[in-house]
């Protein structure tokens, strides 16, 4: 399967390359998702640089959030079916034709939500919501956030 792979840590434009990997097989509690669309988050780029809180074993496929169609179920998976459209975050390797995800993390996506929205619906909006709740921000109050050029900052600005 086609994948955006890096075999070393460094600047994404220098270390990412199109590669071919085996199609993964889901284990117990996992599903395989055929990727429809996966965003590029700032933390994905920092992971490729090797400067994020998580350093994958190399070679690694980039990406941590996506929308797609479930196409294989591992053992002990309940409440999910093949052909179901889902979004998921906090996974690895979404910049590929297929990726694995724990079934418990899947969020079913109705067709009314476009792929472009569904692909980035979980991680950054959830972070923005958690920030608002943690700070107990009331309507009309202000938040000062540096480095707010990503989806968290954009979500807070709305």
Q: What is the tally of beta strands? A: 8
| Biggest β-sheet: strands ordered side by side in the sheet | 7-3-5-6-8
Which consecutive residue ranges, at least 5 long each, have pLDDT under 50?
A: none
**Strand percentage:** 25-35%
Oligomer: single chain
**Total of DSSP H or I helical runs spanning 4+ residues:** 5
Radius of gyration: 17 Å
Distance between the termini: 38 Å
Give the H and E element order: EHEEHEEEEEHHH
Please tell me about this protein's structure.
The chain has 158 residues and is α+β, with helices and mostly antiparallel strands. 23% of the residues lie in helices and 26% in strands. The chain has 5 helices and 8 strands. The protein has a 5-stranded antiparallel sheet. Strands 2-1-4 form a 3-stranded antiparallel sheet. Helix 4 crosses helix 5 (151-157). The chain starts with a strand and ends with a helix.
Features:
single chain, 158 residues, alpha+beta, 5-stranded antiparallel beta sheet, 3-stranded antiparallel beta sheet, 8 strands, 23% helix, globular
Please render the helix and strand layout as text.
Elements: E1 2-6, H1 12-15, E2 16-20, E3 30-37, H2 42-49, E4 60-61, E5 65-73, E6 85-89, E7 98-102, E8 107-108, H3 115-118, H4 123-135, H5 151-157
Antiparallel strand pairs: 1-2, 1-4, 3-5, 3-7, 5-6, 6-8
Helix pairs in contact: 4-5
């Amino acid at each position: 399967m086609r994948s955006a792979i890096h075999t070393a840590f460094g600047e994404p434009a220098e270390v990412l390359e199109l590669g071919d990997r085996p199609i993964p097989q889901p284990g117990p509690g996992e599903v395989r998702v055929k990727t429809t669309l996966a965003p590029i988050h700032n933390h994905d780029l920092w992971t490729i640089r090797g400067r994020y809180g998580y350093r994958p074993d190399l070679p690694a496929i980039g990406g941590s959030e996506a929308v797609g169609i479930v196409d294989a179920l591992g053992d002990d998976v309940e409440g999910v079916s093949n052909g179901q459209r889902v979004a998921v975050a906090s996974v690895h390797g979404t910049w590929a034709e297929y990726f694995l995800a724990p079934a418990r993390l899947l969020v079913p996506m109705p067709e009314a939500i476009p792929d472009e929205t569904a692909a980035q619906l979980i991680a950054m909006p959830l972070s923005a919501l958690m920030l608002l709740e943690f700070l107990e921000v009331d309507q009309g109050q202000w938040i000062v956030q540096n480095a707010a050029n990503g989806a968290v900052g954009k979500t807070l600005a709305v």
